[in-house]
Amino acid sequence: MFFSKPFYALLCLLALLHVQPTHTTSILFPAYIYPSSSSSANAWAPLYSSLALNPTLRHEVIINPASGPGGPPNSDYTSAMQTLKTYPNAFPLGYVDTNFGLYNASNIEANISTWAQWPSAVRPTGIFFNDFDNGSTPGSTAIMTQVAAYARSAGFTSKIVFNPGTIPLASAQKALFGAADHVVVYENSYASFAAQAAAIRSLKNNGVPGRNMSVIVRVLWEYLLD
């Protein structure tokens, strides 16, 4: 894949910075590249380097073998996850797709259960819910509150993250920020971020702490496609 090495190099520096102005900054890192292949013996090496060089920086690493767990881990993922979990500042999050509120709770919980079946030595410690509805689909907020509780009951307690990629509707904010540890309130290009920054800051006036917000800024993709 043409972007694999620069993609990792830049994200290790900027990555997906949590909006935590009065708290320790952490990185939400999408490990969406297969950890090993014939052309790249250790595709996660830049991630391991970042962990080693920044021992006090919390790296929340999204693990995504097949738009979700896909099944039990193969030998490549087993080896990569065993290495990842040797770093005390690494917190792996299992990727779970929600299809923007179109999947029902049983679909989503089935993926969480598959993650829970991974051996404890390689199992993620939290869940990242992607393609998350912002509250506009009827019933989606109740479903997401339910599956977040299900994930915690299954042992995924280090971090629950919802990613709608935008600010949730006002009617859904209390429930969603209450159910998740973090909500991604922005996912788009760096060039567009300034226009949304004021709206993101205004969430604090509605009682949403900055430590519960995350942003995903696509700096590298913008550079590569320019």
Describe the structure.
With 226 residues, the protein is α/β, with parallel strands linked by helices. Helices cover 38% and strands 19% of the residues. The chain contains 8 helices and 8 strands, in the order αββαβαβαβαβαβαβα. An 8-stranded mixed β-sheet has the order 1-8-7-6-5-4-3-2. Strand 2 (26-31), helix 2 and strand 3 (58-63) form a beta-alpha-beta unit. Helix 4 (105-116) runs parallel beside helix 5 and helix 5 (140-153) runs parallel beside helix 6. It is globular and about 45 Å long. The two termini are 18 Å apart. 38% of the residues are buried. Mean pLDDT is 84; it is low at 1-22 and 221-226.
Number of strands: 8
DSSP summary: helix tally: 8
Largest sheet data: 8 strands, mixed
Backbone CA Rg: 17 Å
Output the helix-strand order: HEEHEHEHEHEHEHEH
**Span between N and C termini?**
18 Å
Low-confidence stretches: 1-22, 221-226
Derived structural class: alpha/beta
Mean pLDDT: 84
Strand order of the largest sheet: 1-8-7-6-5-4-3-2
